[in-house]
Amino acid sequence: MIKLLKLEYYKNLNYKPFKVFTIIYFAILIALLFIGLVDFDLFGATINLKEQGIYNFPEIWNFTTWIVALLKIFLGLIIVFSISQEFSNRMFKQNTIDGLSRTDFINSKLLTITIFTTVSTVILFVITMFLGYQYSNTTESSKVFAEIFFIGNYFVKLFTFFCFLMFLSILLRKSVFVFLALFVFWIVESILSSVEVLTKVGGMQGAQRNEILQNEFFVTNLLPLESMSNLIANPMVRLNMAKAIGMKYEFHYPTESLIACLIWCALFIIGSYWILRKRDW
Q1: Which value, in Å, is the radius of gyration of the alpha carbons in the chain?
Q2: What is the value of pTM for the model shown?
Q3: Residue 48 bridge partners (DSSP)
Q4: Residue 95 forms beta bridges with which residues?
Q5: Distances (CA, A) of 218 to 74, 185, 222, 233, 256
Q6: What are the pLDDT digits (tens) for 88-137?
């Protein structure tokens, strides 16, 4: 393991995009977590997210994980560029000649993914705890840890997304093709999801429609990007202004999506290894 970590370190040490995007990602991550301390002008009104309750326990776990998860594409750029350069610079072929097995290659990338995911999760946890204890209207233990599962969901969401990008990078080898494929995949999933929703609730209105959307099982929720998205609910309806106009927050733990993400992780890893074995590089 130490050998693989050293190998990844030296390969990426002099790769400028790797360092630049890493710094940008963690800088923006930290800055976004403090976004609630800034006043925003919206349609002539001043809005302060801290006063809207984003730093209150237990809601803060939902807000911070959802906001920071929006940045995952920045860290994804690092993963894609890191893997793509292996093939464009013929480093993979040279490493295999030097004795690096295909299993070692996959393991080295998984180590990089795990480290980035873990560091991001730890930073998110520490800053969330700090902001919560600093600005929450309650610090009771029952409230503080009531929704800490969002941190675990964030880890799984990030890890699954990076494994998906690793698979696409090994499959397509060119970073531009990887992001194009990701965009197309997102469009296709969105279309399939919309079609399934319309099939089940088409023509329904009001309470009946909302009940179906909340309680009905949708097959498209098990697709890769959809299952990742479902791990962390959109917390905007938990803002004080949303509550004031009668919007309600309902969240049922997405067990199916969590299981789907774990299965997709395994499939992406196995698929990456299979492609490396079958192709003549």
Answers
A1: 21
A2: 0.90
A3: 39
A4: none
A5: 30, 18, 8, 16, 10
A6: 777 766 766 666 788 888 898 999 899 989 999 999 999 999 999 999 99
